[in-house]
Amino acid sequence: MTPAARVQAAIDILDRVIDAARSEGAPADRIIADWARNNRYAGSKDRRAVRELVYSAIRICGEVPETGRAALLALAEEDTSLRECFDGSQYGPERIGEEEGVASRGIAPGWLTEALAHSGVSHEEREALLGRAPLDIRINTLKASTETVELPQDGEPLALPNALRFASGTQVEQWPAYRDGKIEVQDLGSQLACRAADARPGETVLDLCAGAGGKTLALAASMELRGRLIASDTDLRRGRQLLPRAERAGAAGIETRLLDPGRELEVLGDLTGQVDCVLVDAPCSGTGTWRRKPEAKWRLTPHALQRYADLQDHLLDVAARLVKPGGRVVFVTCSLLDAEGPDRFEAFLVGNSRWEADIPELPLGRQRGKGIRLSPFHDGTDGFFIARAVLPC
Ligand SMILES: C[S@@+](CC[C@H](N)C(=O)[O-])C[C@H]1O[C@@H](n2cnc3c(N)ncnc32)[C@H](O)[C@@H]1O
């Protein structure tokens, strides 16, 4: 593909990303993958270049752009060599018109930038939300250790003993250690959230929003396969990924339960007052994961944010009923918005006066409200809020 044709391809993809953001359609990575599947003439270098253009344009446009072309023109203001690609050639974009609309640059839509600022997220921290994420792994102590694991490259040691960092895009899935279940891909922030849960051998632990089980597997390792570990979620498709992953990781014996949204206790009621630790890795806006999914900033609305907050309140209440005296609830969101972190946790404590905040001691992060905030800028992790509450005996 010529450079101009790559720019036109990025414009077409961005049009679809913008449509999807407005209509709750597919995420950008799926749209890019579809494009690659349907345009086999594009070689690996073309695909990489087009992908890079798409993500760079998403990163620099604050508000949802009118069109993919307006987004690419905004990128061309920063990288002027791109302007030459608007050459009217056969597969390239039309020449730039004199009065053409250019998307406005910024970090996120205005209301969201303001909400982040009100949540104490400084300008530099907001910019870092749109940086490039490295690739972190967790050494699975059910199968290996830092001493025994053999990796084709040396990783950067991180703040937890079993965590290593590699450059973004490292193909760890092709490594024998990955295929053998000795390592898992997991952002250090997620690993720290599991550290805050401090699941111990012999305990009964519930991963309430387990998804495909990223954190469940870390909990299983921390429990050394002793005790009872239950993983629940409302999403059957994600839940189905858990058991094969668990098998690969040597994490036998995980119980899985499929929940009905709003009626979780119908399936979890038998655990009432039985559980030592409930991890509530709650659904959220994902402002802390924009490094991986920058278009999420265009998809969020104030209404959706309120829905997340309501669901987080509800899940905290469900979790609290299941915990036995002396047990704990660990509340985690991958967001830097107070509305999805400190405010929810505070509301929980106010509404449940027997519970006490127990701020986790972690090697990274800063206190925010009665929990810990991790951020790409300060900690090099995805953005997270992590809080722990205990029910005294
Ligand atoms: C942040 S993700 C969890 C990620 C997962 N813990 C991990 O480490 O990979 C939130 C999950 O909550 C699930 N969820 C949504 N509503 C729920 C509900 N009412 N009860 C339990 N899980 C729910 C979603 O399906 C999603 O998988």
From TrEMBL:
It comes from the Bacteria. InterPro entries: MeTrfase_RsmB-F_NOP2_cat, MeTrfase_RsmB-F_NOP2_dom, RCMT, SAM-dependent_MTases_sf. PROSITE patterns: SAM_MT_RSMB_NOP. This is tRNA and rRNA cytosine-C5-methylase. Pfam families: Methyltr_RsmB-F. S-adenosyl-L-methionine binds at residues 233, 260, 281. Belongs to the class I-like SAM-binding methyltransferase superfamily. RsmB/NOP family.
